User: What shape does this take?
Amino acid sequence: MPSITRDEALKLIEGSSKHAHSRLASSIMRALAEFFHEDPDEWGLVGLLHDLDYDEVRGEMSGHGIVAAEMLRGRLSERALHAIIAHDHRTGVRPESLLDESLIFADSLAVLMEDQALYASADESALDRALRDESEEKPWIGDNIRSYCERRGVSVPQILRRLRSLRA
Assistant: This one.
C-alpha cells in the first residue's frame, strides 16, 4: 500500500507544467483500475505522479520517470515505480505489466484529449477524427492507444464512459 496520500501527491505536483495533464492521467488511470478490477487509489497515484520529474529533466528525457521513481522510492510500491519509469520509452525500460501498459495508455490518451480539446463526452466519430489528426503530428500517441485497446480488449469510448461516471 502506498505511504503517500492523494493530497500529498497533489502538493508534490503543484506548480508543475504537467499539473493539469497529471490530474487527467490520474482520472483515466482510476477508470482503468475499475475496468480491470485493480486498486483505483494506487493507479490514480501512479497517474498523478508519473510526470513529477518532467520540469526537472526537460532536455534530458532519458531520465524522465527514473528521477521521479527515485523521488518516490519508499512511498509507492515497486510495481508503481516501475510503471512510472517504463511510461516513457526513452528510459529504455520496457513495460511488463498491466499497470505499466495502462500508464502508457493513460498518458497517451491524456495528451490526445488535451491536444485535440477532446472531452469525456466525445462520440466515436470525434474520437476517430482526433486520433487521425493527432497521429499526423505525434504518431506514437495513436499507436499507443490502438495497440493497448487491441491487447487489452478495451475501447476508448468504454474508458471515456467510465471517466464520465467517476466525475459525476
